[in-house]
Sequence to fold (374 residues):
Amino acid sequence: MLDPADPLGAAFRGAVSERLAAFVERQVPALEAMGPELTGVRSMAGVLLGGGKRLRPAFFVWGLVAAGGQPADADLPALLDAAGSFDLLHASALVHDDVMDSSDLRRGQPAAHRRFEALHDEEGWLGDGPGFGRAGAILLGDLLIMWSAQILGEARLQVAAVARALPLVDLMRTEVTCGQYLDMVVQAQPLPRWLPEVAGRPDLAGALADADRVTEHKTARYTVVRPLQAGAAVGGADARLSAALQAYGSPLGRAFQFRDDLLGVFGDPEVTGKPAGDDLREGKRTVLVAQAYARTDAAGRRLLVDLLGDPGLGPSGVAQLQDVIATSGATDEVEATITTSYEEALTALAAAEVTDEGRTALRALAEAAVHRTA
Fold:
């Protein structure tokens, strides 16, 4: 199952899914004891945890292999439970993110807050349906955070190994939450204030620094760096190896997010599972947007100011913004940044003292993280 040449293979993803499903099933008695109303909560949790790339669990597992070699078959269930903790946290972040962004879809299905809203309407309950949906999703996201801690604590790893990993996991939870807040603050900035004019042109430096700080803490740390370092810590990594893995994971995590930024504007909805141009409706302040605003002409900047962040933006408005971004050269610039970051990650990996299997798997994971369509 742990094939370094195919670290995200169907067998690995299926095994993580099975462990997560088994964990949710173990929660059924506690939920049922509180009443039948919790059936819907359990069902929504199961839907959220049933899919996904399993990238974060893979970085955890292959971080361990990179540090300490392949685990024994008897240790795999405990290792996969611990790895599943990272996707429980990720599912929580997705639920909360969809509420904050008012997103309708997630992986081609109604977002959790829309599911709770539909439940409210179907049951004919009193009060505000959308408000009920948002509140239900916030609570579901909170529950998933608690479950992410629980499954890690219950995983039958050696106590000393867990103790080495826990500080990194705790730090990751803080980083992703605070990174999300930083993202909110940046997104609240008017474009002309975010990129003030210097010598008659928008100045990229401050905006890129903001976007890079958000990307590092909201995405790179919790997608790649901390799962990888936590797995390596379980495998016995020392401080030198942990630093080497960060040198690989940080640029790779940024490249992963920059690919997401491009897909959020130009991605195929049939593949991404989200409407075309969703990031444009949400007004995301990404490196892509900063590059477009700085590179386009006055008319293009006016369109970005007027249309970016309009929740009612239709296909025509999306097409206008896509054209401004593409013709400005921003798309090509971000693609070049992705390539540079990817190569930086591979250079760091080449210099790291890791096992051969770990090196093979981490190269393959870098490819999967960056060169994707969803």
